[in-house]
Design a protein that fits this description.
mainly alpha, elongated
């Protein structure tokens, strides 16, 4: 989570206005020009896409999002909307659906809370309140409970150290605390696990897990599985996986999205759009290493038409 993303290109006002004009003609000209829409949105970084949407509104007195909704449909519309909205808006809408939809989507909640930066989580919380007039914390409290709820609240608090600094003395101390809280305790002290897992940076946690195995003779995944169950265990296992390899975690999420019973398009779109400017190329490399087939080839097999073209363009323009 602390890895620095590449710096976005400088946003030029002239280029932004030109791109807004291309979008207007593509959406409202004679027939929708899907290729032009895909090109503009997938070759622009997040900041530029937001600037294009603002320029579009200023020039044409209408929302880009509304024109996308009226002139496109299906999964193609979904991916264009995700590209057109601010990341925090996408995450806020996704979390609202995850906690308010039919059954709680714990996997998606964990994906967002465990992989966003402190600043991103804060922006998402603010966007959530603006859109739904309720706090994200209050809605999560209504929909989850017990120790799993406490883990989610700790993750949402946005107090994780985001540096790359490691302290071997702290790692050993934390490993000893985890052993006392779990394997050596009658009943598990989940609070100790939560305090450590939700606040240490990932590099520090990596050292802590190595110390844990050295001192206890069992890896941290096995310990979590032995000490916990259900959503509580899942939350800590997600964090362990992210500490070990964020790229492999997302590669597996993508594999489940494209290879389950029907494509989980919302998950596929969210991951591709949210990781496009962070680590999507590394995720695609991890995907191919594990599954022996490129992510692009799998997407081409499992999707079609303009939707497929948009997803592949995101991959082609990723970093």
């Amino acid at each position: 989570m602390s890895a620095v993303s590449p710096a976005p290109p400088v946003v030029s006002k002239t280029d932004v206005e030109r791109r807004a004009e291309i979008l207007r003609k593509a959406l409202k000209g004679l027939g929708t020009k899907e290729a032009d829409i895909i090109d503009v949105l997938t070759t622009s970084w997040t900041a530029k896409r937001q600037a294009i949407a603002a320029a579009y509104r200023a020039a044409y007195k209408t929302d880009l999002l509304e024109d996308i909704k009226s002139d496109t449909s299906g999964d193609f519309r979904k991916v264009l909307k995700a590209l057109s909205q601010a990341p925090e808006v996408n995450d806020a809408k996704t979390l609202h659906h995850a906690v308010k939809g039919l059954g709680t989507d714990e996997d998606t909640i964990l994906e967002i809370l465990c992989t966003r930066t402190n600043e991103e989580l804060n922006k998402t919380s603010n966007a959530y309140f603006s859109m739904f007039r309720a706090t994200l914390i209050s809605d999560i409290k209504k929909d989850t409970s017990g120790e799993f709820l406490e883990v989610l609240l700790a993750l949402l608090s946005g107090i994780r150290d985001e540096s790359e600094r490691t302290d071997p003395i702290q790692a050993k101390s934390d490993a000893e605390a985890l052993i006392k809280a779990g394997p050596k305790k009658w009943g598990t002290d989940v609070k100790t696990f939560t305090d450590i897992f939700a606040t240490r940076n990932f590099a520090q946690l990596r050292e802590t897990f190595q110390e844990f195995e050295k001192l206890h003779g069992t890896d941290i995944q096995t310990a979590v599985k032995n000490e916990m169950s259900g959503d509580l265990a899942k939350s800590f296992l997600v964090l362990v996986q992210l500490v070990q390899s964020k790229e492999e975690y997302f590669a597996e999420r993508l594999h489940k999205a494209v290879k389950g019973l029907g494509t989980a398009d919302d998950n596929l779109i969210r991951i591709l759009v949210s990781r496009k400017e962070k680590d999507l190329l590394a995720i695609a490399t991890a995907f191919e290493k594990v599954h022996k087939k490129s992510l692009a080839a799998v997407i081409a097999d499992e999707t079609s038409s303009n939707y497929k073209d948009a997803l592949l363009a995101i991959l082609q323009n990723a970093v």
